[in-house]
Specification:
It contains eleven helices and 19 strands. The protein is an alpha+beta fold and 388 residues long. Strands 8, 9, 10, 11, 12, 13, 14, 15, 16, 17, 18 and 19 form a twelve-stranded mixed β-sheet that branches. Strands 3-2-1-4 form a four-stranded parallel β-sheet, with helices on both faces. Strand 12 and strand 13 form a beta hairpin. The radius of gyration is 21 Å and the shape is globular.
């Protein structure tokens, strides 16, 4: 199946990688040159899909599926209009996306469904967490430690009215993808999300080490949300385990970045193939009931002349065209802009082994090998609130 991936940054990299693993030719479209996903595509077209052009229609006619990999609602609607007119399926659920792309709207949905979620602030207790309503993931997230910090934050301008402020919760974060079609929903593997000092995801662990009862509860939460949205396609749900309870942080009704590849490496389930099932074949095959799960570590590193630092996915968005390198210094795979002699580069390292212990040993060995080869003695892995 030939797929058109529209958008060449993080989501586009994820879509192109998984499409390649499915054996599907990839046409990548982006208005910017040298986007990260360009190195994973079979064909690259530089054009702005917001413009009405004959070239765009000609390219899309050659695709059997369109996967949007960007978050501009106006341009998404235009792309869907063109796709519908040309008769090409597009992996996009407009109504679900509209709610999930607004943290305020999705928080109202959680409240309406009676789902556990962080308490809205300001509530008089600190710390608090502030995040822009219209941004996905960790973009713009800020921790507010005191009343003076809150006053300064609110005084910054009227645009603060479009931010969400809620209680700051501590605990491990988990992610789960769920697919919907009609009245049928299937959820996939639960993964662990670890973040850097900017609250940006730096590492995904699969499968999650989580009690079976909490895993089942997470699946029920995801299905309730998907059912309320009448979801068609994919949605990512993120929760935090705080004081033994799961609380819903956010949802995204789109192909996410990072977790799909970790799930694929662990279970063999390819979420881009499932998008093809839903939007092209209008079917939703149930995954194996007890798929074998390999242990996976998926993490991002930034390499400079003096240090290697584990960092959030923003470093991959800023990287040049990426390539897949198998057996990279002992890692199973690296998705990277590394070339010999380059002093600064970034990589997503992927490690796969039968057990958590074995995969951790492989990861540690690879980093030691890489540091020795590059003559670097400093390694940093900062977490939330830590200096890099």
């Amino acid at each position: 199946m030939k797929v058109a991936v529209v958008g060449g940054k993080l989501q586009g990299t994820e879509a192109a990688y998984l499409a390649r693993r499915a054996g599907w030719p990839v046409m990548l479209i982006d208005k910017r040159p040298d986007v990260p996903a360009q190195g994973l595509a079979d064909e690259f077209y530089r054009l702005d899909v917001a413009d009405e052009t004959a070239e765009l229609r000609s390219i899309l006619k050659n695709a059997e599926l369109i996967v949007p990999a960007f978050e501009d609602a106006r341009v998404l609607e235009h792309l869907k209009k063109v796709a519908d007119e040309e008769g090409v399926p597009i992996a996009y659920d407009a109504s679900s996306y509209e709610i999930s792309s607004s943290k305020k709207s999705s928080d109202r949905l959680f409240a309406d469904l009676g789902l556990p979620a962080p308490r809205p602030g300001p509530s008089g207790s600190f710390p608090l967490l502030a995040k822009p309503s219209g941004s996905s993931g960790s973009r713009g997230v800020r921790k507010i430690l005191s009343l003076s910090d809150l006053d300064s934050f609110l005084a910054a301008g009227p645009e603060r009215e479009d931010w969400v402020i809620q209680e700051y919760l501590e605990g491990p974060s988990f992610s789960l993808e769920i697919f919907g079609l009609g009245d049928m929903y299937i959820s996939l593997q639960t993964t662990v999300i670890e973040v850097d000092s900017r609250y940006d995801c730096k590492r995904v662990l699969a499968p999650a080490d989580i009690p079976a009862e909490l895993k089942d509860e997470f699946g029920r939460i995801a299905e309730r949300i998907a059912g309320a949205l009448e979801l068609k396609g994919i949605m990512d749900v993120e929760v935090i385990r705080h004081q033994g309870r799961l609380k819903v942080l956010e949802i995204d009704a789109r192909l996410p970045s990072q977790t799909p590849t970790a799930v694929f490496k662990s279970t063999g389930i390819n979420m881009v193939e499932l998008l093809g099932d839903v939007f092209v074949r209008e079917s939703l095959p149930a995954p194996p009931s007890n798929p074998p799960e390999k242990a996976v570590i998926y993490e991002h590193i930034q390499v400079g002349p003096e240090a290697i630092e584990v960092s959030g996915e923003h470093i991959m968005a800023a990287a040049g065209p990426l390539r897949i390198h198998e057996g990279f210094f002992g890692a199973d795979e690296a998705i990277t802009d590394f070339v010999p002699g380059k002093s600064r580069w970034a990589a997503t390292l992927i490690f796969v082994e039968p057990s958590r212990v074995d995969v951790q040993v492989k990861r540690d060995s690879t980093l030691k090998s890489l540091m020795k080869h590059l003559g670097i003695n400093v390694f940093r892995d900062p977490g939330p609130g830590e200096d890099s």
